[in-house]
Protein backbone atom coordinates (compact mmCIF):
# COMPACT_ATOMS: atom_id res chain seq x y z
CA UNK A 1 0.00 0.00 0.00
CA UNK A 2 1.04 3.63 -0.38
CA UNK A 3 3.40 5.01 2.22
CA UNK A 4 1.71 6.86 5.08
CA UNK A 5 3.80 9.10 7.31
CA UNK A 6 2.70 10.84 10.49
CA UNK A 7 4.11 14.38 10.88
CA UNK A 8 6.15 13.58 13.98
CA UNK A 9 7.80 10.49 12.44
CA UNK A 10 9.08 12.17 9.26
CA UNK A 11 12.71 12.62 10.42
CA UNK A 12 12.97 8.94 11.37
CA UNK A 13 11.23 7.74 8.21
CA UNK A 14 13.66 9.70 6.04
CA UNK A 15 16.64 8.05 7.72
CA UNK A 16 15.04 4.59 7.63
CA UNK A 17 14.40 5.04 3.90
CA UNK A 18 18.02 6.04 3.35
CA UNK A 19 19.24 2.97 5.27
CA UNK A 20 17.05 0.72 3.10
CA UNK A 21 18.45 2.28 -0.06
CA UNK A 22 22.01 1.71 1.12
CA UNK A 23 21.25 -1.90 2.11
CA UNK A 24 19.79 -2.51 -1.33
CA UNK A 25 22.86 -0.98 -2.95
CA UNK A 26 25.15 -3.12 -0.81
CA UNK A 27 23.27 -6.29 -1.77
CA UNK A 28 23.37 -5.41 -5.45
CA UNK A 29 27.11 -4.71 -5.19
CA UNK A 30 27.66 -8.22 -3.90
CA UNK A 31 30.58 -9.52 -1.78
CA UNK A 32 33.49 -7.15 -1.43
CA UNK A 33 31.37 -4.05 -2.00
CA UNK A 34 32.86 -0.67 -1.36
CA UNK A 35 33.87 -0.20 2.29
CA UNK A 36 32.76 3.42 2.19
CA UNK A 37 29.23 2.19 1.52
CA UNK A 38 29.38 -0.22 4.45
CA UNK A 39 30.70 2.53 6.71
CA UNK A 40 27.93 4.91 5.64
CA UNK A 41 25.32 2.22 6.23
CA UNK A 42 26.54 1.50 9.74
CA UNK A 43 26.70 5.22 10.55
CA UNK A 44 23.15 5.80 9.33
CA UNK A 45 21.79 2.78 11.22
CA UNK A 46 23.29 4.08 14.45
CA UNK A 47 21.98 7.57 13.77
CA UNK A 48 18.52 6.26 12.95
CA UNK A 49 18.35 4.25 16.16
CA UNK A 50 19.57 7.16 18.24
CA UNK A 51 17.20 9.67 16.64
CA UNK A 52 14.23 7.31 16.97
CA UNK A 53 14.91 6.74 20.66
CA UNK A 54 15.27 10.48 21.31
CA UNK A 55 12.25 11.50 19.26
CA UNK A 56 9.91 8.73 20.36
CA UNK A 57 10.88 9.11 24.02
CA UNK A 58 8.97 12.41 24.05
CA UNK A 59 5.84 11.23 22.24
CA UNK A 60 2.56 12.22 23.86
CA UNK A 61 -0.05 9.53 24.64
CA UNK A 62 -2.14 10.78 21.71
CA UNK A 63 0.80 10.44 19.34
CA UNK A 64 1.27 6.86 20.56
CA UNK A 65 -2.40 6.22 19.86
CA UNK A 66 -1.81 7.45 16.31
CA UNK A 67 1.17 5.09 16.00
CA UNK A 68 -0.89 2.17 17.29
CA UNK A 69 -3.37 2.86 14.47
CA UNK A 70 -0.76 3.41 11.79
CA UNK A 71 -2.13 1.85 8.57
CA UNK A 72 1.29 0.41 7.71
CA UNK A 73 1.68 -1.50 10.99
CA UNK A 74 1.86 -5.29 10.62
CA UNK A 75 -1.45 -7.02 11.26
CA UNK A 76 -2.29 -10.53 12.46
CA UNK A 77 -1.82 -12.17 9.05
CA UNK A 78 1.63 -10.57 8.75
CA UNK A 79 2.70 -12.10 12.07
CA UNK A 80 1.23 -15.48 11.19
CA UNK A 81 3.07 -15.46 7.88
CA UNK A 82 6.44 -14.56 9.41
CA UNK A 83 6.44 -16.62 12.62
CA UNK A 84 4.20 -19.61 11.94
CA UNK A 85 3.91 -22.43 9.42
CA UNK A 86 1.15 -24.70 8.14
CA UNK A 87 -1.58 -22.19 8.94
CA UNK A 88 -5.07 -23.50 8.20
CA UNK A 89 -7.78 -20.87 8.62
CA UNK A 90 -11.13 -21.97 10.02
CA UNK A 91 -14.28 -20.05 9.17
CA UNK A 92 -17.70 -19.46 10.66
CA UNK A 93 -19.34 -19.64 14.07
CA UNK A 94 -21.72 -22.55 13.15
CA UNK A 95 -24.67 -20.27 14.00
CA UNK A 96 -24.88 -17.33 11.64
CA UNK A 97 -21.87 -16.89 9.35
CA UNK A 98 -18.24 -15.94 9.02
CA UNK A 99 -16.71 -12.62 10.10
CA UNK A 100 -13.48 -11.59 8.34
CA UNK A 101 -12.74 -9.05 11.11
CA UNK A 102 -11.42 -11.97 13.18
CA UNK A 103 -9.27 -14.66 11.65
CA UNK A 104 -8.19 -17.86 13.31
CA UNK A 105 -7.21 -21.43 12.82
CA UNK A 106 -4.55 -24.04 13.40
CA UNK A 107 -0.83 -23.47 12.83
CA UNK A 108 2.61 -24.54 13.96
CA UNK A 109 4.64 -22.21 16.15
CA UNK A 110 8.29 -23.27 16.35
CA UNK A 111 7.24 -26.79 15.39
CA UNK A 112 4.39 -27.07 17.92
CA UNK A 113 0.71 -27.12 17.03
CA UNK A 114 -1.22 -24.09 18.29
CA UNK A 115 -4.52 -22.30 17.81
CA UNK A 116 -4.10 -18.70 16.65
CA UNK A 117 -6.78 -15.98 16.71
CA UNK A 118 -6.48 -12.30 15.85
CA UNK A 119 -8.15 -9.15 14.58
CA UNK A 120 -7.48 -8.19 10.97
CA UNK A 121 -8.16 -4.61 9.83
CA UNK A 122 -7.32 -4.84 6.15
CA UNK A 123 -5.04 -2.79 3.88
CA UNK A 124 -6.94 -1.57 0.83
CA UNK A 125 -10.23 0.30 1.08
CA UNK A 126 -12.09 -2.75 -0.20
CA UNK A 127 -10.46 -5.06 2.32
CA UNK A 128 -11.03 -2.62 5.18
CA UNK A 129 -14.74 -2.59 4.40
CA UNK A 130 -14.80 -6.39 4.06
CA UNK A 131 -13.09 -6.81 7.42
CA UNK A 132 -15.13 -3.98 8.96
CA UNK A 133 -11.92 -2.18 10.01
CA UNK A 134 -11.14 -4.97 12.48
CA UNK A 135 -14.35 -4.44 14.47
CA UNK A 136 -15.84 -7.85 15.10
CA UNK A 137 -19.50 -8.78 14.76
CA UNK A 138 -20.98 -11.35 17.18
CA UNK A 139 -20.24 -14.16 14.72
CA UNK A 140 -16.56 -13.16 14.76
CA UNK A 141 -16.39 -13.42 18.52
CA UNK A 142 -18.34 -16.70 18.44
CA UNK A 143 -15.84 -18.01 15.89
CA UNK A 144 -13.05 -17.09 18.33
CA UNK A 145 -14.96 -18.84 21.14
CA UNK A 146 -15.28 -21.98 18.99
CA UNK A 147 -11.52 -21.95 18.43
CA UNK A 148 -10.81 -21.60 22.16
CA UNK A 149 -13.00 -24.65 22.80
CA UNK A 150 -11.17 -26.61 20.09
CA UNK A 151 -7.84 -25.67 21.69
CA UNK A 152 -9.06 -26.78 25.12
CA UNK A 153 -10.41 -30.06 23.75
CA UNK A 154 -7.18 -31.00 22.01
CA UNK A 155 -4.69 -29.47 24.47
CA UNK A 156 -3.31 -26.82 22.09
CA UNK A 157 -1.79 -23.53 23.31
CA UNK A 158 -3.69 -20.41 22.20
CA UNK A 159 -1.91 -17.38 20.72
CA UNK A 160 -3.98 -14.25 20.12
CA UNK A 161 -3.22 -10.92 18.46
CA UNK A 162 -5.31 -7.95 19.61
CA UNK A 163 -5.82 -4.99 17.27
CA UNK A 164 -9.25 -3.36 17.31
CA UNK A 165 -10.96 -0.15 18.35
CA UNK A 166 -13.69 -2.34 19.77
CA UNK A 167 -16.44 -4.77 18.84
CA UNK A 168 -18.84 -3.44 16.22
CA UNK A 169 -21.69 -1.49 17.91
CA UNK A 170 -24.20 -1.60 15.04
CA UNK A 171 -27.88 -2.47 15.36
CA UNK A 172 -27.46 -5.84 13.63
CA UNK A 173 -24.59 -6.77 15.94
CA UNK A 174 -26.67 -5.93 19.00
CA UNK A 175 -29.64 -7.90 17.63
CA UNK A 176 -27.42 -10.95 17.20
CA UNK A 177 -26.11 -10.76 20.76
CA UNK A 178 -22.81 -8.87 20.73
CA UNK A 179 -22.42 -8.69 24.51
CA UNK A 180 -23.30 -12.36 24.95
CA UNK A 181 -20.74 -13.33 22.31
CA UNK A 182 -18.02 -11.34 24.08
CA UNK A 183 -19.04 -12.83 27.42
CA UNK A 184 -18.85 -16.35 25.95
CA UNK A 185 -15.30 -15.61 24.73
CA UNK A 186 -14.25 -14.38 28.15
CA UNK A 187 -15.75 -17.46 29.82
CA UNK A 188 -14.15 -19.87 27.33
CA UNK A 189 -10.72 -18.30 27.78
CA UNK A 190 -11.08 -18.19 31.56
CA UNK A 191 -11.81 -21.91 31.88
CA UNK A 192 -9.43 -23.19 29.19
CA UNK A 193 -6.89 -25.70 30.51
CA UNK A 194 -4.17 -24.66 28.04
CA UNK A 195 -1.62 -21.81 27.95
CA UNK A 196 -2.96 -18.58 26.42
CA UNK A 197 -0.67 -15.75 25.28
CA UNK A 198 -2.19 -12.48 24.07
CA UNK A 199 -0.20 -9.76 22.31
CA UNK A 200 -1.57 -6.27 21.67
CA UNK A 201 -0.06 -5.45 18.28
CA UNK A 202 -1.86 -2.14 17.73
CA UNK A 203 -4.82 -0.80 19.64
CA UNK A 204 -6.78 -2.84 22.12
CA UNK A 205 -10.18 -1.30 22.67
CA UNK A 206 -13.09 -2.22 24.93
CA UNK A 207 -14.76 -5.63 25.03
CA UNK A 208 -13.66 -6.34 21.49
CA UNK A 209 -10.10 -6.55 22.79
CA UNK A 210 -11.02 -8.45 25.93
CA UNK A 211 -12.67 -11.18 23.84
CA UNK A 212 -9.14 -12.09 22.76
CA UNK A 213 -7.31 -10.88 25.86
CA UNK A 214 -8.13 -13.14 28.83
CA UNK A 215 -4.72 -14.78 28.80
CA UNK A 216 -2.12 -16.15 31.19
CA UNK A 217 0.32 -13.58 29.81
CA UNK A 218 -0.63 -10.33 28.10
CA UNK A 219 2.06 -8.55 26.08
CA UNK A 220 1.88 -5.16 24.43
CA UNK A 221 4.11 -3.79 21.71
CA UNK A 222 6.05 -0.66 22.61
CA UNK A 223 3.63 1.66 20.80
CA UNK A 224 0.48 -0.35 21.36
CA UNK A 225 -2.45 0.91 23.44
CA UNK A 226 -5.08 -0.81 25.58
CA UNK A 227 -8.18 0.81 27.06
CA UNK A 228 -11.82 0.37 27.97
CA UNK A 229 -12.87 2.88 25.31
CA UNK A 230 -11.24 4.90 22.53
CA UNK A 231 -9.94 8.38 23.43
CA UNK A 232 -12.50 9.90 21.06
CA UNK A 233 -15.32 7.98 22.73
CA UNK A 234 -14.11 8.97 26.18
CA UNK A 235 -13.89 12.65 25.17
CA UNK A 236 -17.37 12.62 23.66
CA UNK A 237 -18.80 11.22 26.92
CA UNK A 238 -16.87 13.38 29.38
CA UNK A 239 -16.71 16.66 27.50
CA UNK A 240 -19.24 16.16 24.69
CA UNK A 241 -16.35 17.02 22.39
CA UNK A 242 -14.31 14.31 20.69
CA UNK A 243 -11.71 16.88 19.64
CA UNK A 244 -10.37 16.53 23.18
CA UNK A 245 -9.19 13.01 22.39
CA UNK A 246 -5.58 13.98 23.11
CA UNK A 247 -6.53 15.06 26.63
CA UNK A 248 -8.50 11.87 27.14
CA UNK A 249 -5.59 9.72 25.94
CA UNK A 250 -3.31 11.32 28.52
CA UNK A 251 -5.80 10.74 31.34
CA UNK A 252 -6.66 7.15 30.46
CA UNK A 253 -3.15 5.72 31.06
CA UNK A 254 -3.50 3.55 27.96
CA UNK A 255 0.09 3.45 26.67
CA UNK A 256 2.53 0.59 27.24
CA UNK A 257 4.56 2.08 30.15
CA UNK A 258 1.40 2.92 32.13
CA UNK A 259 -0.14 -0.47 31.36
CA UNK A 260 2.95 -2.25 32.68
CA UNK A 261 3.13 -0.04 35.77
CA UNK A 262 -0.52 -0.81 36.56
CA UNK A 263 0.00 -4.56 35.89
CA UNK A 264 -2.60 -4.57 33.13
CA UNK A 265 0.04 -6.16 30.89
CA UNK A 266 2.93 -8.43 31.81
CA UNK A 267 5.55 -7.37 29.27
CA UNK A 268 6.37 -4.64 26.75
CA UNK A 269 7.65 -5.95 23.42
CA UNK A 270 10.26 -3.58 21.97
CA UNK A 271 9.70 -2.30 18.44
CA UNK A 272 12.25 -1.47 15.71
CA UNK A 273 13.43 2.13 15.29
CA UNK A 274 10.44 4.18 14.18
CA UNK A 275 7.85 1.53 15.04
CA UNK A 276 6.89 -1.99 13.94
CA UNK A 277 5.86 -0.79 10.48
CA UNK A 278 9.43 0.27 9.68
CA UNK A 279 10.78 -3.29 9.84
CA UNK A 280 8.15 -6.03 9.93
CA UNK A 281 10.72 -8.84 10.06
CA UNK A 282 12.42 -7.46 13.17
CA UNK A 283 9.09 -6.62 14.81
CA UNK A 284 7.85 -10.15 14.18
CA UNK A 285 11.04 -11.69 15.59
CA UNK A 286 10.65 -9.67 18.79
CA UNK A 287 6.99 -10.64 19.19
CA UNK A 288 7.85 -14.28 18.48
CA UNK A 289 10.59 -14.28 21.13
CA UNK A 290 8.18 -12.85 23.69
CA UNK A 291 5.54 -15.50 22.95
CA UNK A 292 8.09 -18.33 23.01
CA UNK A 293 9.46 -17.17 26.36
CA UNK A 294 5.97 -16.99 27.89
CA UNK A 295 5.08 -20.48 26.63
CA UNK A 296 8.27 -21.86 28.18
CA UNK A 297 7.36 -20.28 31.52
CA UNK A 298 3.92 -21.91 31.43
CA UNK A 299 4.84 -25.37 30.17
CA UNK A 300 5.38 -26.73 33.69
CA UNK A 301 1.78 -25.96 34.73
CA UNK A 302 -1.02 -28.49 34.32
CA UNK A 303 -4.52 -27.62 33.11
CA UNK A 304 -5.95 -26.74 36.52
CA UNK A 305 -2.93 -24.63 37.36
CA UNK A 306 -3.15 -22.74 34.06
CA UNK A 307 -6.79 -21.83 34.71
CA UNK A 308 -5.94 -20.83 38.29
CA UNK A 309 -3.00 -18.73 37.08
CA UNK A 310 -5.32 -16.86 34.72
CA UNK A 311 -7.91 -16.35 37.45
CA UNK A 312 -5.34 -14.99 39.86
CA UNK A 313 -3.90 -12.65 37.26
CA UNK A 314 -7.21 -10.98 36.48
CA UNK A 315 -8.41 -10.86 40.09
CA UNK A 316 -5.44 -8.62 40.83
CA UNK A 317 -6.50 -5.97 38.33
CA UNK A 318 -7.83 -2.85 39.98
CA UNK A 319 -5.79 -3.29 43.15
CA UNK A 320 -3.46 -0.28 43.20
CA UNK A 321 -1.23 1.02 45.95
CA UNK A 322 0.13 4.55 45.51
Structure, briefly:
With 322 residues, the chain is of the alpha/beta class.
What does the model show?
The chain is an alpha/beta fold and 322 residues long. The protein folds into two domains: 7-58; 64-315, 2-enoyl-CoA Hydratase, Chain A, domain 1. The chain has helices at 10-29, 35-56, 61-68, 76-83, 125-130, 138-154, 171-175, 178-191, 206-210, 231-238, 245-252, 256-261, 280-298, 303-315, and strands spanning 84-89, 102-109, 112-119, 158-164, 196-205, 217-221, 225-227, 267-269. Strands 1, 2, 3, 4, 5, 6, 7 and 8 form an eight-stranded mixed β-sheet that branches. β5 (196-205), α9 and β6 (217-221) form a beta-alpha-beta unit. α3 (61-68) crosses α11. The relative contact order is 0.12. The model has no long low-confidence stretch (mean pLDDT 90).
State the assembly state of the protein chains: single chain
Give the domain tally.
Answer: 2
CATH structural fold name of the largest domain: 2-enoyl-CoA Hydratase, Chain A, domain 1
By DSSP, the count of extended strands is 8
- Determine the structural class based on helices, strands and strand pairing: alpha/beta
Topology:
Blueprint: H1 10-29, H2 35-56, H3 61-68, H4 76-83, E1 84-89, E2 102-109, E3 112-119, H5 125-130, H6 138-154, E4 158-164, H7 171-175, H8 178-191, E5 196-205, H9 206-210, E6 217-221, E7 225-227, H10 231-238, H11 245-252, H12 256-261, E8 267-269, H13 280-298, H14 303-315
Parallel strand pairs: 3-4, 4-5, 5-6, 5-7, 6-8
Antiparallel strand pairs: 1-2, 2-3
Helix pairs in contact: 1-2, 3-11, 4-13, 6-8, 10-11
List keywords for this structure.
49% helix; 14 helices; 16% strand; 2 domains; 8-stranded mixed β-sheet; 2-enoyl-CoA Hydratase, Chain A, domain 1; 322 residues; 8 strands; alpha/beta
Amino acid sequence: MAAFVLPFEKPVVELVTRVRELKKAAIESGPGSDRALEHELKRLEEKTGRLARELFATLTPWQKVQLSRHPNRPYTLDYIETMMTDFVELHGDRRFGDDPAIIGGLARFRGKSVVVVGHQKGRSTKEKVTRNFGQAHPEGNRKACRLYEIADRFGLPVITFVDTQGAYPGIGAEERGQSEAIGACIAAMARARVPIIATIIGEGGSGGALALGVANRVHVQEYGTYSVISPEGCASILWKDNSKADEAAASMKMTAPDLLRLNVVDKIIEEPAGGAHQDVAVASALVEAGIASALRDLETLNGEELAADRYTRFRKLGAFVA
